[in-house]
Each structure stands twice: as structure tokens, then as C-alpha cells.
Amino acid sequence: MNxxxxxxxxxxxxxxxxxxxxxxxxxxxxxxxxxxxxAEQRENxxxxxxxxxxxAAREEEIAMQARTASTGVRVGSQTEDLQATxxxxxxxxxxxxxxxxxxxxxxx
Length: 108
Description:
Elements: H1 2-71, E1 73-74, E2 77-78, H2 82-107
Antiparallel strand pairs: 1-2
């Protein structure tokens, strides 16, 4: 009986050690996968933010070029006199006002 108790003790101890090692490996692998997932998601987010910033900058530049082409004024330097640009804008406003008055008079 003494031998069987000692044998049972060592069997139980071996089971506990192996179960602990397997649990440790499982937790380590799970944490490793979680770390990889977190790193991938951070990289995806960084890539997304970079793409958004690039597209916004590209769209802004296109809009500024279109604006520059329509007004004749370049950002940072002027190709036309500022007063001439103001006069053109006032003329456009006057044309729009007269067109709006014509439209309103037809509507009544």
C-alpha cells in the first residue's frame, strides 16, 4: 500500500505539472495572438489615417488650384492686382442680383 500511495502521489504531481504547463502555453499563446491582433489593428488604423490625410491634402490642393484658376490669384503671390479681383467679384455679384430680380419679377 505504501508503494501505491507514493505512486499515486507522483502520478497526481505529474498530472498537475503537465496541466500547469499546458495552461501556461495556452495563456501565453492567447496573449501572443492578442498582441498580434492589437498591433495589426493599430497598423490598420495608422494606414487609414494616413490615407485620409493624403486624400484630404490632394482634394484641398485640387480645390485650391481650381480656385486659383477661377480668380487668377495664386496663393502666396498675386498675378493680378487685388483691386481688379475685387472689382470682378463685385461685377459678378451685380449680375447675380439682376438675374435674381428678373427671376423674382417673373415669379410674381
